[in-house]
Amino acid sequence: MNELGLMQRFADPALFESLDSGEKLIASLITTLTGMGVTFAVLIIIWVAIAIMARLLKVQVPKKESPAPAPVVAAAKAEQNTAATVAQQDAGASNELIAVIMAAIAASEGTEYVNDLVVRKINRTSGSRTAWNAAGTADCIDSRKF
């Protein structure tokens, strides 16, 4: 008679009951390791394929020449002066608002200008909730009603 291997007996429902717990444990570990091995092998193949395609399809985008540092400094000083005059004119405008506006302007200019910006701390201001917060809370509550 042809002797069946452990995995063949493990796969056959009629012969599964004849296996002792040690054989079941070994067959389960073999099945688990085989599945994980195949999964990681496929993931590595996908990773290599993406890396090769990225190198083949890499398009060299010509970089724009960065403007001279002097106009950037002059523009930054002009923005600071403008922000200072706006702050003086509007007593309700706070330093935090000006900082946020300047950060948004710097972010829209490009990554090279954002490198000098550092957000040290964000504090919640006292007062009522913002409209976005109230709308989000109401939307979340409405979605959970029966």
Polypeptide structure, described:
There is one protein chain. This protein has 146 residues and is mainly α. The chain has 2 domains: 6-56, no CATH class; 69-143, no CATH class. The chain is built from 7 helices and no strands. The longest helix has 36 residues, at 21-56. The radius of gyration is 32 Å and the shape is elongated.
Write the layout of secondary structure elements.
Elements: H1 6-11, H2 13-16, H3 21-56, H4 69-89, H5 95-109, H6 111-114, H7 131-143
Strand content: under 5%
How many structural units, i.e. domains? 2
Calculate the terminal CA-CA distance, rounded to whole Å: 64 Å
Radius of gyration: 32 Å
Mean pLDDT: 75
Spans where pLDDT lies below 50 across 5 or more residues: none
In total, the number of strands is: 0
Number of helices: 7
H and E string: HHHHHHH
Structural class: mainly alpha
Biggest sheet overview: none
The share of residues in helices is 55-70%
Identify the overall geometry: elongated
Could you give a quick summary of the protein structure above?
The protein is mostly helical and 146 residues long.
Which structural traits does this protein have?
146 residues, mainly alpha, 2 domains, 68% helix, elongated
